[in-house]
Amino acid sequence: MPFFFLILMIIAAAVLKSPLVKGFFGELGVRFALKKLNNEDYKILHNITLRDASKTTQIDHIVIGRNGIFVIETKNYQGWIFGSEKSAKWTQTIYKSKKQFHNPIRQNFGHIKMLEQQFPGYQHPMVSIISFSSNSTLKKVDIQSSHLHVLHTTGIVRAIQSYKEPLLTKQAIAAFAAHLEKSNIKDLKAKKQHVQTIKETQQKKKGQLSANICPNCGDPLVTRTGKHGTFKGCSSFPKCRFTA
Ligand SMILES: [Zn+2]
């Protein structure tokens, strides 16, 4: 990335301070941190969207290495962070203002469940990593389970490298990554847009009907009488055969 562009973005972030921009930089920070992992040994995937029968799940980062599968959730929050593994809500405190947010461990647990569906043959626990940006302070975050880390972005690589046992072959790593890339739903926005367009078309049609305009050709609708009573039909019949 050109240096000038980077400076521009830093200024933009300072000015905007919007959650969107903050989130973007949080993820950028994790991407940057993960670059320290040797890409010969690790496959690193960002922003993967998966879907099963009931829901769509977006996962920030997935690292697949000889030493296992690591699922990373990014939280770019400032202030003091309080939370425990079991509680439904965590708390962010900035001076006297307190805000609650969903327990990110539970959130990432959902991501892992979705990933387990993708790799039913993988018999080891996937490692859950919750990464907070360095401008937060992890005050009281109680963790009891293994294969679970709540840490600052700067600690991600060390946490991943602390797993020494070889679990996956090079071929398995490549196959898992390829499968995820293939399953990744890239056109989620396009699909949502598509649904929106259908809705709008239906609404437009309704409006035209109530204004007695044929939605097919734009000519006026007229009331006709048939075998089964009255109905609305296009005045351009038989050229247009629209009825309602
Ligand atoms: Zn018509």
Automatic annotation (TrEMBL):
<dbReference type="InterPro" id="IPR011528">
    <property type="entry name" value="NERD"/>
</dbReference>
<protein>
    <submittedName>
        <fullName>NERD domain-containing protein</fullName>
    </submittedName>
</protein>
<dbReference type="Pfam" id="PF01396">
    <property type="entry name" value="Zn_ribbon_Top1"/>
</dbReference>
<feature type="domain" description="NERD">
    <location>
        <begin position="22"/>
        <end position="138"/>
    </location>
</feature>
<dbReference type="Pfam" id="PF08378">
    <property type="entry name" value="NERD"/>
</dbReference>
<dbReference type="InterPro" id="IPR013498">
    <property type="entry name" value="Topo_IA_Znf"/>
</dbReference>
